[in-house]
C-alpha cells in the first residue's frame, strides 16, 4: 500500500514498515476477535481457492474445457510431477495429492493478491501464516514418519543414520536433530515469506517514485515512464514468483513427507 502526506516538506511520505506490512483492526475494539487486512485476505484466499475447485468439479465432462480443464491440468501436474516423481506411486504417497493441491492453490491465490488492483499486498509477506503452514507440514511429516516406520525406527533413522562411524554421532546427531526438526520448517516458512516481502517492497518503491514524479515535481515527469514501466515489469515478474514460490513450498513439503514414508 502507498501513503502520502501533504503536511510538510515536499509532500512525499515514504511508507514505513508498519504501513507496508501491518494494518489496523477492521472490527470494533470490544469485539472478541481481531481481523485486519492480512487476515481478511487469507480468508478470501481460502474462499477463492475453494470456490474455484468446487466450480471446476461441479459439472465434470469427459472432454474438460474452461476452468475444469485448467484445474485438472493443475491437479495432474501435482499428481504426476510432484507426488509420483518425488514421493512414489504407492497409496501412502498418493493420498497426499489433495493436500498438496490445496496447499499449492491456496498459497498461489494468497501470493497473487500482490498484483490485484484492490489489494496490492501479498498476505504471505507476513511471517505468521507461512510459519503456520510450515508447522502443519512439520506435524504431518513427523506423524507420518512414526506411522510408516514406527517411533523408534523413524527417530533412530533421522538421528543415527546408517553407515556412519559411531564416533561421528556425537557431531552428526545434534546436527540432524536441529536440521530436520527445527531448520526445515523455519526455512520452508522463511523462503516463502522473504521472497514475497522483497517483491512487495520493490513494487511499492517503484510505484511511490512513479507517483512522486507525476504529481510532485514536473521536472521529473520524463522519469515517470521508465519508473512506471519498471513497476509494471516487477508486477509481471511477481506473478511468476507467486507461481514459483507456491511450487517450491509444495514440492519441498512432498520431499519431507516422502522421507517420512520411505525413510532416508
Blueprint of the fold:
Layout: H1 17-21, H2 37-58, H3 66-87, H4 91-94, H5 97-112, H6 128-149, H7 151-159, H8 169-215, H9 221-262
Helix pairs in contact: 2-3, 2-5, 3-5, 3-9, 5-9, 6-7, 6-8, 6-9, 8-9
Average pLDDT taken over every residue: 85
The residue fraction in helices comes out at over 70%
> Would you report the number of β strands?
0
Radius of gyration: 23 Å
The first-to-last residue Cα distance is: 45 Å
Largest sheet geometry:
none
Shape: globular
Structure overview:
There is one protein chain. The chain is mainly α and 264 residues long. It has one domain (17-262). 72% of the residues lie in helices and 0% in strands. The chain contains 9 helices and no strands. Helix 2 (37-58) crosses helix 3 (66-87), helix 2 (37-58) crosses helix 5 (97-112) and helix 6 crosses helix 7 (151-159). The longest helix is centred in the last third of the chain and has 47 residues, at 169-215. 26% of the residues are buried. The model is unreliable at 1-17 (pLDDT under 50).
